[in-house]
Specification:
Largest sheet: 8 strands, antiparallel, barrel
Distance between the termini: 41 Å
Number of helices: 2
Low-confidence stretches: 10-22
Order of helices and strands: HEEEEHEEEEE
Length: 192
């Protein structure tokens, strides 16, 4: 019995050491679009709304166990709201898909391409990349963390840079409590 307990303890210690020092294999890793998520949150004077957008495809690239690149395509036709129900949910989703916002009939995808990746600590990186929405491309900088086969990142996007000006107090006067803030958040949870 004593030998069995020692064997189990030794196995646990070896497994812990192995997993602690295992690095990610080099190369391009496809993101699992079924288990990964992109959550958006938009803000207005009277509150906020939250929802999701499906990833169409994506990958992260590694060299010597470190993140060096990435590329993602979001399916804008899948944009949904998750904090409303019924008629108001349908109205908001229809409005977000309309030309007032993302014009998904004309611009069905949005794309993010990493241009520069800088390590900021263990498993943490600062990424500078190009985000394209409605055929307009602008630089974005954000933090991403990678642990095993998962990664998380948060981006703050100024929608007006992509021609999404509906309800923006930066472009329209007298909106009062109907104003929608220019910046919205994207939070990604990725599995690869």
């Amino acid at each position: 019995m004593k030998n069995r307990v020692q064997t189990i303890i030794a196995t646990v210690i070896i497994a812990t050491i192995t997993f602690a020092f295992t690095t990610i294999e080099d190369g391009k890793k496809a993101v699992n679009t079924e288990t990964s998520s992109v959550t958006w949150k938009g803000y207005k004077v009277t509150g906020s709304h939250v929802g999701s957008i499906a990833l169409k495809q994506g990958s992260l690239e590694f060299k010597e166990g470190a993140l060096i690149g990435g590329e993602f395509v979001m399916d804008m036709t899948t944009i949904v709201n998750t904090d409303l129900e019924g008629e108001y949910k349908g109205k908001l989703e229809g409005h977000l898909k309309s030309d007032d916002f993302f014009g998904v009939a004309t611009y069905p995808t949005a794309k993010l391409v990493f241009n520069k990746v800088k390590s900021t600590g263990k498993n943490s990186y600062q990424v500078t990349g190009d985000l394209t929405i409605k055929d307009r491309t602008n630089p974005v900088t954000f933090e991403i963390s990678v642990y095993g086969n998962k990664a998380t990142a948060s981006l703050k996007i100024d929608r007006t840079l992509y021609g999404v000006k509906y309800g923006s107090a930066s472009f329209f006067d007298d909106l009062k409590d109907k104003a929608i803030y220019d910046e919205f958040d994207l939070v990604t949870d990725l599995e690869f």
